Amino acid sequence: MKRKSTLGIALMSLLFFTACKKEASINIDQNRIYSDYELTYSQMSNQTVMQATFRVDHNSGNKIELTYPARIGFNDENLGWRNLGGRYEGTRSGNQLNGHFTYLDVDQNSYVNTGAAVNPIDLPFGINNINKNGNFFLPWTGAVLQSGETVKVIISGGSQSGSKTFTATAIGSSYISLEQYKLNQLIAGTAQIQIQRERATGLEQSNLSGGRITSIYKGRKVTINITE
């Protein structure tokens, strides 16, 4: 048993370090660097978190740490490297979803990309209970779903051991369907529910590998009861 446990830990460690493997941008053809930008505004904290991840060739390639003089900034302020996540991050007050990333590569090529000003979205007031034994149609507060947008509802925390995500993509929708087969996997008791609207697009300015930029607006996180 001890031997199996030791092998299991070793395998998990190998997978962890493989997933976190990164390369230095100076050792890579600059046109092979794929850029992935994400802006997330939280209504609860009134803050925007910006993240920039660079990879080799595509969105699942090895992560890249930029080598000076290469750098990434948001609204003309440099973002800091986070070794644990293998990406660049920063936090700003207020809704900064329409801010811009500026990436300067080793060859001094500059690429500027601006986020989308996503419409606000929130849960309706008065939602207290969700029954797990049937479909639940949840309207939201805010504009209907626009072309290129996705609305998600995430239920987690409280009595729950995991989380469930529900998605709406139909243009013109003003509600999201929480499917019974997912709700039934939740545990009766407390949980937290949150809704978000997001838009992802390709980059306006990039090298040959391209990239994407995603803007996310998160509504309030509300405590509810999951009932039988």
What are the main properties of this structure?
228 residues, 2 helices, 10% helix
Q: What can you tell me about this protein's structure?
A:
- The structure is a single chain.
- The chain is built from two helices and 19 strands.
- It is elongated and about 60 Å long.
- The chain has helices at 2-19, 180-183, and strands at 22-24, 33-42, 47-56, 63-65, 71-74, 77-78, 80-82, 87-93, 100-104, 110-114, 121-122, 129-131, 136-139, 141-142, 149-156, 164-168, 175-178, 189-202, 211-227.
- Helix content is 10%, strand content 49%.
- β9 and β10 form a beta hairpin.
- The chain is mainly beta and 228 residues long.
Which residues form runs of ≥5 with pLDDT under 50?
1-7, 13-19
Mean pLDDT comes to 92
Number of DSSP-assigned strands: 19
Termini gap: 40 Å
- Output the structural class: mainly beta
Gyration radius, rounded: 20 Å
Helix content: under 10%
Shape field: elongated
Q: How would you sum up the major sheet?
A: 11 strands, mixed
User: What is the tally of helical segments?
Assistant: 2
Order of helices and strands: HEEEEEEEEEEEEEEEEEHEE
Tell me what portion of residues adopts beta-strand conformation.
over 45%
Explain the layout of strands and helices.
Blueprint lengths: L1 H18 L2 E3 L8 E10 L4 E10 L6 E3 L5 E4 L2 E2 L1 E3 L4 E7 L6 E5 L5 E5 L6 E2 L6 E3 L4 E4 L1 E2 L6 E8 L7 E5 L6 E4 L1 H4 L5 E14 L8 E17 L1
Parallel strand pairs: 1-4, 2-19, 12-19
Antiparallel strand pairs: 2-3, 3-4, 3-8, 5-6, 5-9, 7-8, 9-10, 11-14, 13-17, 15-16, 15-18, 18-19
